[in-house]
Write a structure and sequence with these properties.
CATH superfamily: Phosphate transport system protein phou homolog 2, domain 2
Radius of gyration: 19 Å
Shape: elongated
Helix content: over 70%
Number of helices: 7
CATH class: Mainly Alpha
Number of strands: 0
Mean pLDDT: 93
Strand content: under 5%
Largest sheet: none
Length: about 220
């Protein structure tokens, strides 16, 4: 029975990593659809959201079954509840990738407002935060989780920089407002993806140390 329990825990971990890999790919392809002005990529990425939803449900069902049948305690209980929360954050990241795809298709139908430089950088940072947070989850690596939490500031700074630049466009030429707002929304979606990666990292700290650092004023210390 104990061996079977740990096999099921491993399956939950594997499915969580599969979901994370899918979400990372969706985020990357969503931004590619905008930068390359390829709405076909955007449409394909949107269709991937069904897979993300299905995986989240599978993870939740497996976790609930483990809770009901095995009544785990201590770190096993924290692992299961953490996996459920992480799957929720991952599914919401997938939703944000879909939102970026929708904005990309709108932007692709209009002349390009400006070269896309900061948004791809922002996307790369958010993707790295996602990868590192999942690595921290698998490895139970608190220092790596804390580095993810600290890295959220870089994404926030880029978002503010993009806002200032686009505000200048809108003030100088009102005809750019619709496209500028579309780009602002993309930056907002990327910021939310980074926020969800931060949530995952915070849950890793809870998993390993049993301390809830969410909403802490200085979680990275």
């Amino acid at each position: 029975m104990q061996r079977h329990f740990h096999e099921e825990l491993q399956q939950v971990k594997d499915k969580t990593l599969r979901l994370g890999s899918l979400v990372e790919s969706m985020v990357e392809r969503a931004v590619t659809a905008m930068v390359d002005r390829d709405s076909n990529i955007a449409e394909e990425t949107i269709r991937s959201d069904d897979k993300a939803d299905a995986l989240e449900i599978e993870i939740d069902d497996a976790c609930l079954r483990l809770l009901a049948l095995h009544q785990p305690t201590a770190i096993d209980l924290r692992f299961i509840t953490t996996a459920m929360k992480i799957s929720t954050d991952l599914e919401r990241m997938a939703d944000q990738a879909v939102n970026i795809c929708q904005r990309a298709m709108e932007l692709n139908a209009e002349p390009q407002l400006k070269p896309y430089i900061d948004l791809p950088i922002m996307s790369q940072l958010a993707q790295k935060m996602l990868r590192d947070s999942l690595d921290a989850f698998v490895e139970k690596d608190v220092p790596k989780a804390r580095s993810v939490i600290a890295g959220d500031n870089k994404v926030d700074q880029l978002k503010r920089q993009i806002f200032r630049e686009l505000l200048t466009f809108m003030m100088e030429d009102p005809r750019t407002i619709a496209r500028a707002i579309g780009l602002l929304l993309v930056s907002r979606h990327l910021e939310r993806i980074a926020d969800h990666a931060t949530n995952i990292a915070e849950m890793v700290v809870f998993l390993v140390e049993g301390r809830n650092i969410r909403h802490s004023s200085s979680p990275a210390i």
